[in-house]
Hints:
Elements: H1 2-35, E1 46-51, E2 55-57, H2 65-68, E3 77-79, H3 80-90, E4 96-102, H4 111-126, E5 131-138, H5 140-146, E6 151-160, H6 173-179, E7 182-188, H7 196-199, H8 205-229, H9 235-240, H10 244-249, H11 253-259, E8 265-266, H12 269-280, E9 292-294, H13 295-301, E10 311-317, E11 320-321, E12 330-331, H14 332-344, E13 350-357, E14 359-361, H15 362-377, E15 382-391, H16 393-398, E16 403-406, E17 411-413, E18 417-423, H17 425-430, H18 455-480, H19 484-490, E19 495-497, H20 498-503, E20 509-510, H21 513-524, E21 533-535, H22 542-557, H23 565-588, E22 593-596, H24 598-603, H25 616-624
Parallel strand pairs: 1-4, 1-9, 2-3, 4-5, 5-6, 6-8, 10-13, 10-21, 11-12, 13-15, 15-16, 15-17, 16-20
Antiparallel strand pairs: 7-18, 14-22, 17-19, 18-22
Amino acid sequence: xxxxxxxxxxxxxxxxxxxxxxxxxxxxxxxxxxxxxxxxxxxxxxxxxxxxxxxxxxxxxxxxxxxxxxxxxxxxxxxxxxxxxxxxxxxxxxxxxxxxxxxxxxxxxxxxxxxxxxxxxxxxxxxxxxxxxxxxxxxxxxxxxxxxxxxxxxxxxxxxxxxxxxxxxxxxxxxxxxxxxxxxxxxxxxxxxxxxxxxxxxxxxxxxxxxxxxxxxxxxxxxxxxxxxxxxxxxxxxxxxxxxxxxxxxxxxxxxxxxxxxxxxxxxxxxxxxxxxxxxxxxxxxxxxxxxxxxxxxxxxxxxxxxxxxxxxxxxxxxxxxxxxxxxxxxxxxxxxxxxxxxxxxxxxxxxxxxxxxxxxxxxxxxxxxxxxxxxxxxxxxxxxxxxxxxxxxxxxxxxxxxxxxxxxxxxxxxxxxxxxxxxxxxxxxxxxxxxxxxxxxxxxxxxxxxxxxxxxxxxxxxxxxxxxxxxxxxxxxxxxxxxxxxxxxxxxxxxxxxxxxxxxxxxxxxxxxxxxxxxxxxxxxxxxxxxxxxxxxxxxxxxxxxxxxxxxxxxxxxxxxxxxxxxxxxxxxxxxxxxxxxxxxxxxxxxxxxxxxxxxxxxxxxxxxxxxxxxxxxxxxxxxx
Length: 626
């Protein structure tokens, strides 16, 4: 037996060594392949070129190795503060003749993010820098950004497709019934609609009421932002009568957009390039092309100062999950550790918590809230800054702050709790499988997901959810200094837009991240360089840095194909199918008791629930790490 154990240990060591060598060889070959053709050096002078071939986010997720190999359709993400920093720096940079945003492959952003990027573009224009936007098509998110440009270009075969927020949600009750699955729902909150797809075949009247109020407010805010940036654009009339494209212009969508002053020029890539040569000059290294400095190159020349000040900025972005998680997902342990490290090193004197999350695990949200309270108990001013969405579990964390900033289009509230537990006694019965056994107490073997959950377990689970809900409402009442009855009235799981939330005293002031940083510095009596932010981000490991570098080089050399409008809609439908699978996975796994928001994920620019995807690469990594 001893010999077998020794031999097994030797085999494991050999396996680990071989796995390490294979990984090193793989990344070495990948790096060599991508680096074989060096990108042409960017010119010293020209236009800042911001090519958004993906989505704009508060905190991008890590790069998947499979995406580099073309085996994954992972959407590229761009950090909002990086793009804003580049534009604002370029506005005062004499080497930058113009700023260009290429949105031909743009995959969207929340309204708050789009508004912040637009404000940076306004600042550049006021500084005298031309800001031009080009795309083969514009949808709501892209056009909100484009409206802030000096010139909007559209491909002659392109389209401005303004639809407004809204749409349909998948409901799975019919499928669940056919499969014989019993869905046990434990919830509190009339408007807590996250569980409805599993117990209904349509939207309930309260959920419809709340959703309609939300999308109407968001659409009004969008129209106001676009009109303020581009008064001549007839966006509202154009969106209200989409048939004008077919009726008055025989399907010529580009001319329809031009006639409503939604765009300034129609032209293809070559025409835009020729125009930009006149604006920014010709690239000395690539004759015939305009001189352009890509975003990645410009950020290397002018990096964001992440560690300059003493106002810590802690980002809570994405689904809130238990344990550790990488960027783009709010792992309770990971975020608490980041803040604890900053406090122990005495690096910060004030704290801003930037939240862009629809919620998730209650226990993870409470862990993050406790770490923020610890900072507050240590004497640090704590200010909350809400991004596109800070709802449910995101709002749970917000109750630890002394002041809350949000924007009118922030999606917040959703103060409710639920739990979902499927059991499969009906499914198993369809194939002749049953279960039986013995008990010593009423909870022995519970929850029995193969034989049916007992009434005692259901009662305990519901009472637990109700207790968590009472605690949630109590946190809101205490932190917002509201009477309990008033807090209960505005809770019930209802989602609110930022403007209404301010009227209800769920937030204190309108403002962005910069306003929150200034308020935190003021309360801590910080001035000068100390009043600048220190971003409490996890440092990427060696593999992550390598993947990021390879991804950046790959994007320079091989851009994804630009999408026409119909192709983009097909990709949207693919995302709907992916969301359906992810939602099913969320029901079967993850935290049992959740403070989560369904509407926020559709309208707030956030992903579907479920945490990190357990892809084939993840399984391989787990096996190699055993």
